[in-house]
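Quick log. Single chain, no ligands specified.
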Amino acid sequence: MQFTTFSFLALLAATTVIYYLFPLKFRWYVLLVFSMVFYGFFGLYNALCLSATILTTYITSYITDYLHNKRDTVIKSLGESALREEKAKVKNRYRNLQRVYLTLCLLINLGFLAMVKLDGSLIMPVGLSFYTFRAAGYLIDVYRGSIKAEKNLPRLVLFCAFFPQILIGPISRYDDLAPSLLTGNKFEVSNLSEGSLRILFGFFKKLVIADRLLPVVRELIADSGHGESVVIALLLYSVALYCDFTGGIDIALGAGRVVGVRLPENFNKPFMSVSIANYWQRWHITMGSWFRDYLFYPLSTSKVIRSVSRWMQSHINTSFGKRVPIYFITMVVWFTTGAWHGTSINYIGWGLANGVVIMISLMFETLYRRFHDRYPGIGKTRWYHALTIVRTYLLMRVISAFFLFESTGATLRALLSVFTKFSLSGFKSLPELMPVEDMFIAGVGVILLIVIGTKKKETFSKFKPVLRYTAFALLLLTVLLFGVYGYGYDTELFIYNRF
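-> predicted structure:
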């Protein structure tokens, strides 16, 4: 069951109606039941994989929390007169036990995720990457003592399998999501209207723009021997990917909002980024923060990295010893990020390309600072700001080529063709792939997105009801008239469904 089907809309409508009919304290049960119904549409295999992840996470978090309490009890029994060394031994003993259980659970769940991605013969469970990361983040937070373990298994099931976000995210944190997900939310007209408008806007992005452009991108990829085809494909793909992914996230956030559940935002005007690092603070925000908090920071503070850094500082150079471990960790994180998307060489190459650009930026950070200290006015000019945005956009388009082509060799040949086999006359063939009316509709749609993107998020929530419902009606009419759907049409899967 995909988001862009009438079945999903019917399920969401039934969920919303029944949710608000139940007493407050029982409303989370409604979300649990309908989440199970939703995921049940994908079959027994998917349900078993999801159940295994949740059960192993629940058992491990329960044990981890028990060991936390046991440790505190033992330390308290020692009394205030106990030596610091005695207390440290107790803490280390229980911490080591917790680490063993945590490692075992992460190896099982993340190992299964890696195995599915490595072995092409295994079927990829729906939403595996997203619910595995949610469960792993929750478990690590329990291990760190940031949150208490959820003793109620059904509540943990709902956190991991909440149906609006199980397919393509966002990747929520337990302490952020639990207050609105696991307690009953009162009916508010604003939640219903703003959530519905967000869902409809997601449909607009997906059906009117993304699904209109993606078939054209595939045709252009097949003609990748010509540089102009590659350029057009990369430019159109940037729009199609943005509308496809953000459209799905809009539907997820809107579906949560209609029942009062606030899911985290996953995008913040990524095409306004001034650097690759800034881009990843704006694009797929919850994935980036997951890798930062659960991989980058733990690695950078690990004993091994710290000892290597100290050795380099004392035997080679202080600055070198501080920087090299960070460069190494950056590449590890981006290698892993690429592998999260897929274990083919192309995805790994995409991840490493991001890492290399970010690492080079870190290397020249001192030079950038000196330049701006010497010429402070340049960095404040509009043209310089615009230049950094264009530079970042073009760099990301080049890197995104790894997503488009079937192999690293094909990617490199396609990029090389931009310089060796480029002809402006090739642009004239675009109407053969995409009718003029489709170009016009997609173009107007993109302009509308740009106009809306310049507004603050609170702008539309401040509209008077008449204006809000008028906007809803116009958007609905646009989707119905210009959306790519209907009998005999095989709607495009969301691109991030396969990750």
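The chain is about 75% helix and 0% strand.
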